[in-house]
Amino acid sequence: MALDGTDKYRKKQKSRFWSAVNWKWVQTITLLSFLISVSMSYLSSEALKTVSNLAAFFILLLFVLIGIVFDIIGVAATSTTEKELHSMAAKKVHGAKQAVWLARNAEKVASFCNDVVGDISGIISGATGAVIIANLKPYLTVPQALVVSLTVTGCIAAATIGGKAIGKAFGISKSVTIIHTAGRVLAFLHLPRQKKR
User: Fold this and answer.
1) CA nearest 65: which of 122, 2, 12?
2) What does the pLDDT look like over 179-193, one tens digit per residue?
């Protein structure tokens, strides 16, 4: 049976998609995510057993904030263009060279920031919320414990999702500024290291 024009177009587009996927990066980031997530899940669960509710609350806020900040960077990387950044780099503005690198590698930057860091932040936030609930349970009745558990879980989800929703709008509208700021941080850390020729 002969393919019509639409079928041929779809087949061509599908072929382009699969050939455009960077399979080496997909394998690397998948393995990295698994190893970091498992390690951080175990370490955070063990470490949080010894902290107070107040300390656990601040850890919770910190990791929710980290997740939001990295989500903003990931969105900004995919939204920005290299044109303005090249102009800065030509003027030797501090961090502009690294900012160009971030924009050029937007797919990898977004994958790392939004997925890897996002997953780790989610794991630690969830573990911290569980510790807070467990510490409060001895002082609560069963119905109260259920209400507290649902409230804490709901607040973590709402803060994370709401913060990221606001952050996405900010990341798109201020993408150049955000990526340049991230570039300055990388320049301070001397990352990414340039290959010697």
Assistant:
1) 122
2) 999 999 999 988 776
80-95: b (≥16 Cβ within 10 Å) or e? bebebbeebbeeebeb
Q: What is the dihedral of CA 176, 61, 121, 140, to 10 degrees?
A: -160
Please give the Cα distance from 133 to 61 (Å, whole number).
Answer: 15
Q: Please choose, from the candidates 129, 131, 159, 151, the residue with its C-alpha nearest in 3D space to the C-alpha of residue 67.
A: 159
Helical residues (DSSP H) of 48-136, grouped into ranges = 53-79, 82-90, 96-104, 106-110, 118-136
CB 139 within 8 A of CB 88: no
Q: Which of 73-77, 119-123, 133-137 has the highest mean pLDDT?
A: 73-77
> What is the average pLDDT across 128-154?
90
Contact residues for 84 (Cβ-Cβ < 8 A; gap 6+):
176
Residue 102 CB-half CA count within 13 A: 32
pLDDT digits (tens, 9 = 90+) for 30-61: 888 888 878 877 777 777 777 888 888 888 89
